[in-house]
Amino acid sequence: MRINFQMGGIKTKRKSLKREREVADENAVSETPPKRFRPTSEDHVSLVKLYEDLAAESDEIRLEAAKKLILRFSPENNPSPKAIKQALDRLIRGLCSHRKAARFGFCVTLTELLRQLFGPSKITVPDLDLDVSAVIELVNVKTKVDGNVPGQERRDHLIGKLFGFKAIMQSSTLIEPELLLENWNQVLDHIYELARDVPWLREECGLVLCEAIKSLKSLPSLRPCAQEVAERLSLFKLVNTPEGVAIWLTVRANYDDAVPDHIWHRKDPLSKKERSRLAKILREDFNTSKESADEVVKSAAANPNPIFAWDLVLTEILRRDERRRSEHSDDSKSEFSQVWRDLVDENLFSSTASHERKSWGFKLFIKMITTAPIWALSALFSPNLMRTMINQVQIEDRLLHATALAALKSVQLRAQRDPGSAIPIITGMTSEQRTFEFDKHAIRKTLEQTVLAADDQTLRQIVRHFRALVLRPKSQDQASANIRRQSIADILLNIVKSYPRYATFSSVSSKEESWLRDTLELFVEISYFTPSKNAKTNQVPLPPIDDANRDLFRERLSSCLTRLLRVEAGDRASFALLIANMVRSKAWPAKTLEPTFKADKSIINIVERSFEALDSLASKGSIDGKRSAADSLVLLYSLALLQVFNGDGDAVLMLDDLDSSRKSLLSKDKKSSGTQAQNTFVELILTFLGNPRNLFRRIAEEAFTIFTADITPEGLQSLTSILDTAENLEGQRELFEQGSNELADEVSSEESLEVSDVDLVSNETDEGIDDGNGSSKEGSESGSNKDDESPIEDGSGGEDEEELARFNELLAQTLQTSQARLDGAAADDSSNEEDMDDEQMMALDPHLTKIFQQRRKTSKEAREEAKQMVVRFKSRILDLLSIYLDKEYSNPLSLEVIIPMLRRIRANANRQLTEKSNKILITYFDTRKKHKGPLPKPENQDAAWKILNEIHEEAKMGGKSTLHATACSSASLHLVKILVGLDRSNYSRAVDVYSESQKQWFMNRDSGILPILFTKFHSWSTETRNQRK
Q1: For 732-736, 847-851, 888-892, which range has the lowest pLDDT when averaged over its residues?
Q2: What gap in Å lies between CA 452 and CA 499, rounded to an integer?
Q3: DSSP class of residue 396?
Q4: How far is CA 1001 from the centre of its chain?
Q5: Which of 52-56, 58-62, 451-455, 785-789 has the lowest mean pLDDT?
Q6: Alpha carbons within 13 A on the beta-carbon side of 515
Q7: Using CA of residue 918, residue 920, residue 925, residue 931, what is the dihedral sign?
Q8: 191, 657, 744, 958: which has the fewest C-beta neighbours closer than 10 Å?
C-alpha cells in the first residue's frame, strides 16, 4: 500500500512541476529574441523568378525565362561549378512537377544547357567535375521514388525521369562531339525499362526513341546507335506493340540494315504476310506472340485517341507509294488502298469493333482526309467506314454521331481548301463497291457542298462521273437504280441552282464545252431519248431507265432552265435555245439515240418548221429592229418544242399560234398585223401562265418582261379582265375553256342535294331516264362545240360521265334495281320497286344518306379545287401586272390597271389576292418617291378624269375595309398628282370630285367610304401649297 501511495505521490508532484514549467515558459515568451532572416540578394530573387516563369502557362513567358537562364549559366559567362550543379539539380527536380507547362519549360532549358556545357563548344567551365555519365546518374537519382508515396507523386516522378532522359537525348551530347555508345546504351536501358514496366508511359517513350533515331540523320558513323535501339525491342519484349512497330519502321527508314532478322517478314511490318499481325498490334491486341506467355505485354489504360504509331504507319506507306509513282511513268497500283482497308476498315470498323476503336477510325479518317495527297483520297471511303458513318449520322443519340459529323465536315473543308480534291472525294463516296447511301440529309449535304467547292475543270469531271453512274448505277435492282439516279439528278440540279460563279460565267454557245453544257446534255438525253441499236454497250443504261425516272429527269431539266433564266450570261433566251438545239441535234439525224417522241409526218413537219423559225429568230436577233420581240419568241418557241417532245399535244397547237404571231410581226402591214400579233402574243403568254409548272410561269414572266413596252391596250385588257372572273366552277370553265356539260351536271347535282332523301329517289330516277332519252341530241351538240373549242374538253366530259355512271350504278345497287337503258330492257326488273313497304323504305335510308354524302363531298371538293385554280391563275396575272407597272410606270396605259386591282382588295375578296394586290399598288404609288420616276402624262385627260371618278365609286364598294379605303385614297391621290401636274387648274375640278364624295359620305351613315379618302387629300394639298411658297 505504501509503494502505491508513494507512486501516486510522485505522479502528483510531477504534474505540479509540469504546470510550473508551462507557466514559466509562458512568462518567458516575451523575452525570446526575434527570429533572424538570412539576407537575400537581388540576384537570388531574380533567379527564383526565372524558375517560376519556366512553369508559366504562357509559351512566351516560358521561352523568355529559358533564354535568360541558359544565358546566365552559359560557359561564355563563366559561371561557378557550384552554380551550374545547383542549376542542373533545380532543373531536374522541376521536371517532376505535376504541371504540364512546367515539364516543357524545364525540359527545354535543361536540353539547351546540357548542349552548352557538354556539346561541341570549345568553351568549358573550369573545375567543373561533371560529365554526361554523371548527369545521367543525377537524373536517375533526383527522379527516383523512394518509399510509399501517393500515386500522383509517383506518376509525376516517372514522367520527370522520362523527360530528363529525353533532354539528354535531344541535347545530342551522347553523339557530339564524339559518340558515347556506353552512355547511349545506358539511357536506352532506362527508357526501355519505363516503356516495359509503365504501360501508360509507353507511348511517350516510343516518341522519345523515334525522335532520337531521327536525330542520327542516317549518318553511317551512328549506325551502332540505331542498331542498339532495334535490338532492345526484343530484349525488352516490345516488338509486338504499336510503339515497337513505330520504332522498327523509323530505324528501317534511316538504317535499313540495322534491324535484326527473323522478327518481321523481310524485316518489314507492312508486308502483306504480316498485315493480319500488324492489325492486331495496332489495335493493341497483345495476345499475338508466338513465343512464351512471359512475352505478353501489359496493356495500357484506355486511350481516346489512336497513338502516334498509326500516323507513322500510314505516312510510311504513302511515302513508299509516292516514291513508286515517281519511279514509274505509268501509275502503278497503290498499296495504300489495301493497307487502309486491312488496317483501318476491316480492323477498326468491323462489325465487332468497339465504339472506342471506331472512334479511332474516324479520327484517322479526319487526319488522312486533311493531309493525304489527292491520289489517295478515294481509298479512304472504304465500305465498313461508310456503313458505320451512315449508321452514326442518321440517328442523333448514337455515341459517335458527333464524330461522324466531324468526319463529314472535314471532307467539305478539304474540298474548299483544295478544289482539285473534289473529284477523288466524289468518286470515293459514290463508286462501285461502296455501301454509301447518299440520299441521307447530312451525307447529301456533304456531297453537294463538296461539288460546289470544285473548280470548273474538276466540276466537269464530276459531271462525267455522275453520267457514268446514271448509265451504270452499280445495281441491277430497278428500284435501287431509280433511287440512285434520282439522287444524282437532284445533286446535278443543286449544282445548277447553287453554282456561285455565274457572274463570271462566259457566254453560252452551242459549241462551248463546259460542265453546264455536259449537265444539260445528260438531262436532255435521259429525258427525251433512248439508246438505238447502233449505240455502244457502255452507253446503254443498265437497268433501263423507266418512265418514272424519265419524267423525273424532265422535271429536273425544267427546274434547271427556270434557274438559268435568271443568269445574265448573254441574252435571256440563250439557255432555252441551247437546250432546244441539243434536242434537235440528237433527234435528227438519230445515230446512237432515238427520241421517245413519236408522231405522224404532219406533226414532224410542224416541229421541223418551228425549228427553222427558231433558227431564223436566233440568227437575226430582232424583229423590225426590236430585240425584245425576238427574244420573247425564242423563249416561247424553245419551251413549246420541249413540250412537244414531252408528248404534249397542245404544244403543237401552240407552235401554230407562235408561227402566226411571228408572221404577223414580220408582215409589211405594220399597223393591223402588228397589233394583232401583239395581242396574240399576250394570249400565248396567258396559255403558258395557265400551266401549273413553275417553268412555264417563269418563261411567261421572262417573255412578258421583255415585251412590256409593246403591250397594247387590248392586250392589257385581256390581262385585267381575268381579275374579275368568278372564283368558282363557272369561272374555271371560262378561264380554261371547259365544256358546259360539266357545269350543268354540277349545278344539277347541287340542286338535287337540297331535296329530301325520299324525293331524291324518285327525282334522280326520273332525271336519269330523261337524260337517257334526251342525251343523244344534247351530247352531239355539246360534243361538236367541244371539238370547236378545245381538245381538252373530251377528256373532262368523259370523266364526268364516268362519275355520274358510277353514282347511278351505286344508287341502283342500293335500290336493287337496274339502270334505265334506251332499249327499256330494265323495265321489267324494276316492277318490284313499286311493292316496297314502309319498313323497306326505312331500311334504305342509311344507304341513301351515305351515297348522297359521298356525292356532296365530291361536289364540294370540285368547287374548292376550281376556286383554288382560279385564285392561283389570278395570282400569276398579278405577277405579270406587277412586272408591267414596274417597267412601264410612266406609261399612261398603266393607269388602266388600277381599278381592276382595287376590286381585288375589297372586304369580301380572297385574302391572298387582297394582300398581293395591295402590295403591288403600294409599290407602284411609291415608285416616284423612291426611284424618282416621272409621272404618266396621258394625252387624253378625259380618260384620266374617268378613272378618278371610278376610283371614288370603287371606294364605296370596299365593305368599310381599311385596307381597301387606304388603297383607294392612294390611287385617287395618284391620279390627282398626274392631273395637277399636267395643269394646276385641274386642282379645282379634283376638289369637286372629292367634295361630291364627301357630301355622300356625310349624308349617308351607311356609306362605304372611309374618312381616310379625304384626309390624305387634305394633307397632300397642305404640303403642296406650302412647298409652292
Answers
A1: 847-851
A2: 6
A3: T
A4: 58
A5: 785-789
A6: 22
A7: positive
A8: 744
